């Protein structure tokens, strides 16, 4: 799978699509939706759709698609190739949500939780298929949140479609199985081929499964944690695992506010306030010694000012 467009800038989300088969523009079609990478603290989450004519459902079954979680990586790759080879009647599209997109969405002032982000990704992909001329009739979705509410939401958004939302839809409906394979293969490729924009040297790629409970993943997070700036953009900052490690291992920061002077609060805690970094003469530490600026400042060619 070619992820070239995403690899150009993996800090933002990206949509990848196959060609739209001509038959999908002239016959009633079914469409399946599934995701990959919802739980990990590392890497993107990928939403996928797959669609084909209702009259060709049996041919889709002949491709031997199955729930991607029950397959080995090699089996998924082979089945994705089968889906790609069936381009005369099967099409697909993917929305790759970068870790940066997930984190900034969930941490913004107006809360935008993962379920809402997932729903919007799915809705966007269905709308893409319709805008591309696919004659959709049936939509099958693996649920995110309560199935009945999600089904009602999609039915109201797309009143002309027959929407079915079910738990474990990827094991019930072949068209959802096909979507799960496309999404999982894309995520696997994105994680394996991740290009770190940060200057980390030769990165240790033995980060385990990427799930918060994996000891290897936790060890990797600690290894590449900066006490002030946190983690590379490969990490979802909004996950509690990442936030808890920053709270326990990161540098304590005190901000000036209306209740108490930040410098005094920091001094009482025997710590340094953020303002002291702003007011400090260029090239010195709080103790007056020579100091090498963090790459955040040097990469942006930022220098401290003694006065405004």
Descriptive report:
The protein has 308 residues and is α/β, with parallel strands linked by helices. The chain has 3 domains: 4-192, 2-Layer Sandwich (Nucleotidyltransferase, domain 5); 215-249, no CATH class; 262-299, no CATH class. The protein has 13 helices and 6 strands. α3 (73-85) packs across α8 (174-192). The chain is elongated, with a radius of gyration of 24 Å. The model is unreliable at 284-289 (pLDDT under 50).
Q: Which keywords apply here?
A:
single chain, 308 residues, alpha/beta, Nucleotidyltransferase, domain 5, 3 domains, six-stranded mixed sheet, hydrolase, RNaseH_sf
Residue windows where pLDDT falls under 50 for at least 5 positions: 284-289
Please count the beta strands (DSSP E, at least 2 residues each).
6
In CATH terms, the superfamily of the largest domain is Ribonuclease H-like superfamily/Ribonuclease H
The helix content is 25-40%
Count of separate DSSP helical elements: 13
Domain RNase H type-2: 28-251
GO biological process, one term: DNA replication, removal of RNA primer
Binding site for a divalent metal cation: 34-35, 142
Keywords: Endonuclease, Hydrolase, Metal-binding, Nuclease
């Amino acid at each position: 799978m070619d992820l070239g467009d995403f690899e150009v800038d993996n800090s933002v989300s990206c949509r990848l699509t196959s060609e739209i088969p001509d038959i999908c523009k002239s016959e009633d079609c079914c469409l399946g939706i599934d995701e990959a990478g919802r739980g990990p603290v590392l890497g993107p989450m990928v939403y996928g759709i797959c669609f084909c004519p209702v009259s060709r459902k049996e041919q889709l079954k002949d491709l031997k698609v199955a729930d991607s979680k029950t397959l080995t990586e090699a089996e998924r790759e082979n089945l994705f190739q089968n889906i790609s080879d069936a381009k005369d009647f099967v099409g697909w599209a993917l929305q790759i949500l970068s870790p940066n997109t997930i984190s900034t969405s969930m941490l913004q002032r107006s809360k935008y939780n993962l379920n809402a982000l997932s729903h919007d990704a799915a809705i966007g992909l269905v709308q893409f298929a319709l805008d591309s001329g696919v004659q959709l009739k049936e939509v099958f979705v693996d649920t995110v949140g309560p199935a009945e509410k999600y089904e009602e939401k999609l039915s109201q958004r797309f009143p002309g479609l027959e929407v079915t939302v079910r738990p474990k839809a990827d094991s019930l409906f072949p068209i959802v199985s096909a979507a799960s394979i496309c999404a999982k293969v894309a995520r696997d490729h994105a994680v394996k081929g991740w290009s770190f924009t940060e200057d980390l040297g030769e990165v240790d790629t033995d980060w385990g499964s990427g799930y918060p409970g994996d000891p290897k993943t936790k060890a990797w997070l600690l290894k590449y944690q900066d006490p002030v700036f946190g983690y590379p953009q490969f990490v979802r900052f909004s996950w509690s695992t990442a936030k808890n490690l920053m709270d326990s291992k990161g540098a304590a920061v005190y901000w000036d506010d209306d209740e108490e002077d930040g410098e005094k609060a920091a001094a009482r805690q025997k710590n340094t306030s953020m303002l002291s970094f702003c007011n400090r003469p260029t090239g010195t530490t709080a103790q007056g010694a020579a100091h090498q600026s963090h790459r955040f400042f040097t990469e942006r060619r930022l220098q401290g000012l003694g006065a405004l």
